[in-house]
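During the first year of the project, the team set up a workflow for recording each protein of interest as an amino acid sequence followed immediately by a discrete structure-token representation. This format lets reviewers and collaborators read both layers of information side by side without switching files. As required by the reporting guidelines, we include two representative entries from the current panel. The first entry is reproduced here exactly as it appears in our internal archive.
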Amino acid sequence: MLKLRHIILAFFLFALCHAQAQLRVPAFTAYLEPDPDGARVSSRSGISEWMDPALKVLWFGDVKTPGKLDCSVELRLAAGAETRLRLTVAGNSREATAKGMGGDLVKVDFGSFEIPATGYQRFTLESLNAPGHAAGDVQALLLDGPAAVGAHFNLKERRNAASVHLAYPVAGATNVDAFYCEVTGVETPLWTYFEACGWHRGYLGMQVNSPTERRIIFSVWDSGGESKDRNKVGSQDRVTLVAKGDGVFSGDFGNEGTGGHSHLVCDWKTGQKQRFLVTAKPTDATHTIYAGYWFQPEQQKWMLISSWKAPKDGGYLRGLYSFVENFGGSNGQLLRKALYGNQWFHTADGQWHEQTTATFSHDPTGKADRLDRFMGVEDGQFFLSTGGFLPASTLYGKLFTRPSTGRSPTDFVLSPFPEK
């Protein structure tokens, strides 16, 4: 009887360990290359309408235990239809063929792969079918075996890389009426916002919006608590446009708070330093005019992007920060990186003060889902990077110090443009 109990216990422990090793990675967490829109990705249908054999499906995961990894893919395919697929892991490829069962799921088994070391692994699924032939509606990547134990994947539908931030602790400073920052885009894929000068009411920086369009962005938030629809914001809470530069578009924004938006379409260059500056000018006890400026490298002069009058304010700049954001989720696997340097703030008594310290933070995606987010010091500047599935990460709240430059923005004269 005792022996039987031991056998049952051993079987139970084996089954428990085996269940813990199994890992189901949803298809809706995968990425498509080279065209992120080459098939449909949704939480309901997984990856569907995959008809192009040049399109690859990619998953990325951090393997914590080297060893054998059993890999298969779960999909749906029309009854009687056939699909040929290839899976590549750790430099090795396996091919498999499956026949459809209509509405029932089909498991495509690729066998075992040897994972030689810990770290991020790329799982590449390819179609070996003819163009126009459906590869199947992929539902999940299934992993089992010793190397699946403790492996970390993002299992949520949000595929954006984490947003990462620099916060500038302006200790003891009051009446900050200008904030200056230099930004150099290093890795600049589509749908990235490199924000330079942020404060409690808005932000200024540069975006990659499409393969053919880049922008300088300046936005200021309304007062009140409306988070989505600016039509619901009363006139007493709305920021109003005061002035804007030549060629600048201005309008509204919503869905992340509401406010006034402006942008200039311009081909700012990857690898070229861009200079930004925000000013604050209180006009009375309850209103402040905030203005955003960008230095035009080709013309070697400062340009007003726009200025906005903010109600229920009357103060100066506070809560200074910078960030890198991946605002389109379909290419969140790509690395985004920028250098942030030579930060200065100006106070109403006429003094420039150099800001050489900053702390690191990230959004909720960076807490547990996407750990490939970093801050540090490089070439005498802070850097922020996110995405790329690089190993390790930076501790939330860590303080960094960059070397002093002693170069304040003396070529900028406060309020050189009409703002009211």
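The second entry, processed by the same pipeline in the following quarter, appears below.
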Amino acid sequence: MASEFMSAIMQIAEEKGISKEAVVETVEAALAAAYRKDFAQKEQTIVAVLEPDSEKSRLFVVHKIVDEVEDPLKEMTLAEARKVDPAAEVGGEIREEVFPPAEYGRVAAQTAKQVILQRLREAERNMIFQEYKDKEGEMINGTIQRIEGNVVMVDIGKSTGILFPSEQSRSDRYYSGQRMKFYIVRVDDSIKEPQVLLSRAHPQMIAKLFEMEVPEITAGTVEIKGVAREAGVRSKVAVSSNQDAVDPVGSLVGRRGVRVQAVMAEIGEEKIDIVLWNEDTATYITNALSPAKVREVVLNNETKSALIRVEDDQLSLAIGKAGQNVRLASKLTGWQIEVEKNGAKVEVEAEKPEEEATDMVSSETEISTPETEVVEAAVEPTIEAETEAPAVDTKEEEVPESTNDTTGE
């Protein structure tokens, strides 16, 4: 049966969520600090050892073994050390047990209390930091705790996450008590407690949401190659399949659009375009500009830019509202895309692509060709189906069933 002392240690460990060993180490440090305060000299190295079974504590003064002693309170010569331990060697240490001559005083007891509280806080903070550090780049459920100006504080369990304005989706409306999913961007170690930085606008949030809905992604059959996002408005997701029999676009859309609709239910009014990734840059750019039909792609490998030529009736689709379609396609492919009309480049509203948007772009999209290459746009058969079902604005009330869906749903 566990003693009262060990029961108290187990209770503290359970309440704080830290290991029993960490609590024992904390008590040992407190005992050493109390002895040093009342009976030892400041410069001495004191170590306490707690024996849980007997509930006894032993105190030792530690000396380092050196060739030449510079600090007698901390060091000892090899000859002196071998009087205590014949096997002693230079670089080792000698522990001499000491016994408190009297009970600890009030100041020493207060010192021990402060050490215990501080060490427990540190152990708890380190445990929380490591737990959330391991979850960087993952999704987490949280409850809105409070809103301070434009900053949203989120209860995520053992810590409080921070959602800054730059990481908020423009379609979200936040209120206390609201439960939502968040993407963990980064965990910073701070003096008080770890800072868990959350996001509702990160491109990878879309990828993680699809991972939760599409078993083919978890199985490795379907792969998300890239995500470009303007949070709260529109996203483009590039996908590929590692098996010829599996339609990657249809897998993400799901039967009657149930999978993509589940993702959209989490991100609000944001539209999602799902396009087919291709190792050929020209084809990939053509697919990324869907639902517009591209007539010709002119690649400049030196500047990593592409000039797009479309028919007049496809120009507005290619550019999109306020240049959004071509801007997202640029983010997704990693190429600067310009649209040409009647021999002149069309000015597109500038918006710098976020770095995160191209993090997942495959290096295979680069082509080692001459400086400028003119490619007649060749759209794969599955892309034609895309404009009718999967790659249409998924904001539509009803998404037609993908004929290529092999999920068996």
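For the second entry, the following points were noted during internal review. The two ends are 55 Å apart (CA to CA). The domain at 4-132 is CATH 3.30.1480.10 (N Utilization Substance Protein A; Chain:P; domain 4). Both points are flagged for discussion at the upcoming steering committee meeting.
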